[in-house]
Specification:
This protein is an alpha+beta fold. 20% of the residues lie in helices and 40% in strands. The longest helix has 19 residues.
Length: 115
């Protein structure tokens, strides 16, 4: 399962950054996907591994690029979904959400460490 999306990075609500997981957000116009995925992102012709959340409520593809820091606002990126790791769910508080995201990132790293 690989789906590819291109878009210009836009400003979000900075919720991921506040939780310690900054994201590069692009507009999502595909209603067929939801949940969290292991995937890749191409930025300036460099391929990165990423945890990706398809946020259907806000129509945004939120991409946490592993081991990356930098300002991507206004840049065009290509996001490819490789494997779904979790269905979408609601969280009762930020602590639970933060723990779940940390676990998602571990699962993404494990996905890419596969032989």
């Amino acid at each position: 399962m690989q789906k590819c999306y291109n878009g210009v990075v836009i400003r979000g609500e900075s919720a991921g950054t506040k939780l310690g997981f900054p994201t590069a957000n692009i507009v999502l116009e595909d209603a067929s996907i939801s949940g969290t995925y292991a995937g890749t992102v191409v930025v300036d012709d460099i391929l990165y591994e990423a945890g990706i959340y398809a946020n259907q409520r806000r129509n945004i593809l939120e991409t946490h690029i592993l081991d990356f820091s930098g300002d991507l606002y206004g840049k065009t990126i290509t996001v490819t979904l490789h494997e779904k790791i979790r269905d979408d769910e609601e969280f009762i508080n930020k602590k639970t959400l933060s723990k779940t995201i940390a676990n998602d990132i571990l699962r993404v790293r494990e996905y890419f460490d596969k032989p």
